[in-house]
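Example record for the data management plan.
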Amino acid sequence: MSTVLVVEDTLSELELISNYLRESGYAVIIATDAKEALTKAIDQKPDAVVTDVVMPGMSGFELCRKLKNDPITGKVPIIICSSKSQEIDRFWGIKQGADVYVTKPFTREQLVRAVKSVMA
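Corresponding structural encoding:
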């Protein structure tokens, strides 16, 4: 079973994303901020990361950079899942190391397809 680390500071969104992934057969690790996510990514080595962008402390963009620059987590695919939907946001997310950029609101199918695409 593949494991996905979900990083989201809004609890309702965290629950929604986690449920969609669990129902699709993934094991889920949760983190409510980027600092916690960094620790969990290094300790638990997920197969993919789904992260929000706008979070207190460290943004999802900064989290992407840190994960991609760490030898332990550098190859872990990252899906940004954000309400920031401008083309510049998508461009910046990919430039920071995200493999896929999904905008909110999203469907279960869009999220699961994004996760499957980075694990193929």
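Summary line stored alongside the record: DSSP finds five helices and five strands in the chain.
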